[in-house]
Write a structure and sequence with these properties.
Largest sheet: none
Helix content: 55-70%
Structural class: mainly alpha
Order of helices and strands: HH
Shape: elongated
Low-confidence stretches: none
Radius of gyration: 12 Å
Distance between the termini: 34 Å
Number of helices: 2
């Protein structure tokens, strides 16, 4: 069973990857891909917020 720290680290890693993919999708004007990634981004962001992670400095999307 993973600890809270392990779950948070996994979520942070996923958050970073999703943001990278979102920026690529936006650059390539892949609207549908961006929209799908944004749903995942919002889910992970909500999880991290509930976990008490301050996303101010690491959230590159700023929407």
């Amino acid at each position: 069973m993973p600890t809270n720290i392990e779950v948070t680290k996994i979520a942070l890693d996923d958050f970073k990857k999703i943001q990278e993919y979102m920026m690529l999708a936006k650059k390539e004007n892949a609207v549908e891909t961006y929209a799908k990634l944004k749903k995942e981004y919002l889910t992970i962001k909500a999880l991290l917020n509930v976990s008490g992670v301050n996303l101010t400095d690491i959230d590159e999307i700023k929407e």
